[in-house]
Design brief:
Blueprint: H1 3-15, H2 20-30, H3 35-53, H4 64-71, H5 75-79, H6 93-96, H7 98-105, H8 108-113, H9 137-143, H10 147-157, E1 160-161, E2 167-169, E3 176-178, H11 182-191, H12 195-201, H13 204-209, H14 223-230, H15 233-238, E4 243-248, H16 251-257, E5 261-266, H17 271-280, H18 282-306, E6 314-316, E7 321-324, E8 330-333, H19 345-353
Helix pairs in contact: 2-3, 2-4, 7-9, 11-14, 14-17, 17-18, 18-19
C-alpha cells in the first residue's frame, strides 16, 4: 500500500469522506466542474485514481491544489508524512515544502529559520518567485489567513505596497512580489487591527509622494479600499491625524530634484477618496461623510489661513494635494468633495461651507 493511499485514506476519514467517488466529486467541484458533469467526472476518473493509489501511475497535476484544499494539508504531507525532515536540495526548494506548507502551518519560527533562508539557483530568496502553480507566498497567506505570515513579511522584509494594487516591494532585501489578491490581502491586514502594521504595508503617504495615487490601477483608487477603511473605525479615525512624512527620492529623482528628499505635513491622502465614496453611498456612509465634511471645514480654513503663498500661487490637484504652482511641491492635503447632484440638503450645506482652493485645471 502506498504512502499516498495511506494518507488519503487517513484524511478522508478525518473529513468524513467515505468513498473515492465522493472524493473525486469534491475534486471536480474544486476544478469548477458543476452539476451532473461532476458526477460523470468522478465515474470516469475512478479507475485512473485507483491506479494512482496503487502506485501504478503518477498523481495528476491538476489534482494537487484541489486535494490540498479539501484536506487542508500540503502536497508533501499527502505524499509522505515525514517529508519535512528530508534534506533540502537547493534547486528543488520551491517544490519540497512549498509556500503552501509554510502558510498553512503559519509558524513564525519556521518562517524565520527556514523560509527566510531558502534560495534559488542564483542564491536569491525564493520569496520573490512563484511556485509550480503560478502562486506567490502572499497568495497562500491570503488563502490560509496566515496572520504570522503577514507579520513575518512586515518584520523581516519591510513589506510595502508599490504602485499597483498587486505589487509589493521590500527593504533592504529588494524582493518584489506580484500576485492576484491585493484587495483581499488588504482586507486581511485590516482585520488584524494593527494600525502601524497596516500603515507600514499600505503606506498611503509614500504612494502619494511618489505620484502613485494618480494611477487608476493603484489600490488607493479602488472602491474596495475605501470600503475597507470606513468599515474599520481605527483606520477611519487615523485619516484625520496630521503627520510629518519624509519621502526619499530615488537616484534619478535626486538628480532631477537636486535634493535627496522632501517632507510634507498633512492628513492622510486617502481622505478624499473615502469622502467621495461615502458621498456616492450615503445610505450606508452618511455618518462618515458628515464627519469628514465637518473636519474639512475647519481643516481647510486652517490650511488657508496658514499659507505663506498668495492664493494664485497655490492649486489643489485631482486627489486633494495642495501644491505650489511653481515648484509643484506638496504643501498639504485639503478636503474636497467632487461628487455632483447630491440630493441631501445637510450634506450640500456642509460642502458649501467648506473653504475651496483653485482647481488644478485653472493653474
Amino acid at each position: 500500500m502506498t504512502a499516498l493511499k495511506n494518507n488519503i485514506d487517513h484524511y478522508m476519514k478525518l473529513k468524513g469522506i467515505k468513498m473515492y467517488s465522493h472524493l473525486l466529486h469534491a475534486i471536480a467541484l474544486q476544478l469548477g466542474i458543476k452539476g451532473q458533469a461532476a458526477y460523470d467526472f468522478a465515474s470516469r476518473e475512478k479507475a485512473n485514481f485507483s491506479k494512482t493509489l496503487k502506485g501504478e501511475r503518477p498523481l495528476k497535476y491538476e489534482y494537487i491544489i484541489p486535494l490540498e484544499k479539501i484536506f487542508g494539508v500540503s502536497l508533501a504531507r499527502l505524499i509522505e508524512e515525514d517529508s519535512y525532515k528530508l534534506p533540502v536540495e537547493k534547486e528543488m526548494v520551491p517544490f519540497i515544502k512549498g509556500f503552501r506548507y509554510y502558510a498553512y502551518v503559519d509558524d513564525m519560527e519556521l518562517y524565520e529559520k527556514e523560509l527566510s533562508k531558502m534560495l534559488n539557483k542564483e542564491n536569491k530568496s525564493i520569496l520573490h518567485e512563484m511556485d509550480e502553480f503560478g502562486k506567490t507566498f502572499i497568495d497562500y497567506v491570503v488563502e490560509y489567513k496566515a496572520v504570522n505570515g503577514v507579520r513575518f513579511l512586515h518584520d523581516y522584509y519591510k513589506l510595502r505596497l508599490r504602485f499597483w494594487n498587486n505589487q509589493f516591494e521590500t527593504e533592504p532585501k529588494g524582493i518584489f512580489w506580484v500576485h492576484e489578491g491585493g484587495v483581499e490581502f488588504c482586507r486581511m491586514v485590516a482585520n488584524m487591527g494593527d494600525l502601524k502594521l497596516f500603515n507600514d504595508i499600505f503606506d498611503s503617504y509614500f504612494m502619494f509622494a511618489s505620484n502613485g495615487f494618480y494611477l487608476p490601477q493603484t489600490l488607493y483608487a479602488q472602491d474596495d479600499f475605501f470600503e475597507i477603511v470606513m468599515d474599520h473605525d481605527y483606520l477611519f479615525n487615523d485619516m484625520f491625524e496630521i503627520k510629518t512624512y519624509k519621502y526619499e527620492f530615488g537616484p534619478s529623482a535626486k538628480r532631477k530634484q537636486g535634493r535627496d528628499s522632501m517632507s510634507f505635513i498633512s492628513i492622510n491622502p486617502i481622505i478624499n477618496g473615502c469622502l467621495n465614496y461615502a458621498l456616492k453611498h450615503l445610505d450606508k456612509y452618511k455618518k462618515q461623510a458628515i464627519e469628514i465634511l465637518k473636519f474639512g471645514i475647519e481643516h481647510n480654513d486652517r490650511v488657508k489661513s496658514g499659507l505663506t503663498l498668495k492664493p494664485e500661487d497655490v492649486y489643489i490637484d485631482e486627489i486633494g494635494g495642495l501644491r505650489n504652482i511653481r515648484s509643484n511641491d506638496v504643501l498639504d492635503i485639503a478636503v474636497e468633495a467632487n461628487v455632483k447632484d447630491i440630493k441631501d440638503k445637510e450634506i450640500n450645506d456642509l460642502i458649501e461651507k467648506m473653504p475651496k482652493f483653485k482647481p488644478f485645471w485653472e493653474r
